[in-house]
Amino acid sequence: MKHWFITTDGNLKARWKKAFPEMVASKPDVFINKTQPNDVVWLSTTVEGWSELIGTVTAKGAVVVVLSYSPDDREALRSLDLGARGYVHTLAAPEVLKQVALVVTNQGVWVGQELLAKVLGGSFKALQQRAEGGSSFNTEQLGDLTDRERGVALAVVRGATNKEVARQLDITERTVKAHLSAIFKKLAVRDRLQLILKLAPVVERIPERF
């Protein structure tokens, strides 16, 4: 398995070698006929036609991770929809790149935590709306929270980012972060993803038609 970094910026080669000493930096017209199944292709959005290249690469059995200097939720979702397995900042630390590689080469998907929280929150909300006889959330988990913390927690579970929570509750993002720290401690969770899972809807039965 090789790690191919497809970019227009050759100055990043030394940075990526810290993560993958045997990595190969290449231009699009060079690597495309050399990739093998299970290779990991790290594709920069600075490359012309990068989105079209995703399908070409995945058709050869390789795994694609999109690199972006300005990560954006819409662009991330587009990348995944086109077949990419991961989406990460171009300047991510070598240790992060190793984690990304571990996840995507084991059939996982890597995106920013806030986007993943938003996707999971939206999925839970849709599941809740389709459920019959299920309560909205595991309310027993909310008993130790203050009213404000409960509002923040439920907004996050529904997929809101810190900025969106701040706007919804008319508080600052700094206050949202402070509430989240308290919530994490009280509910014994490490981050917002664990929070979502802990407060997942209690779905007793999903109609067979779904």
UniProtKB/TrEMBL annotation:
PROSITE patterns registered for this protein in UniProt: HTH_LUXR_1, HTH_LUXR_2
Domain of life: Bacteria
One function term, GO molecular function aspect: DNA binding
Pfam families: GerE
InterPro entries: Sig_transdc_resp-reg_C-effctor (IPR016032), Tscrpt_reg_LuxR_C (IPR000792), WalR-like (IPR039420)
Record-linked CDD domains: LuxR_C_like
Protein name as catalogued: CsgBAC operon transcriptional regulatory protein
GO BP terms in the entry: regulation of DNA-templated transcription
Stored Gene3D superfamilies: 3.40.50.2300
UniProt source species: Vreelandella titanicae
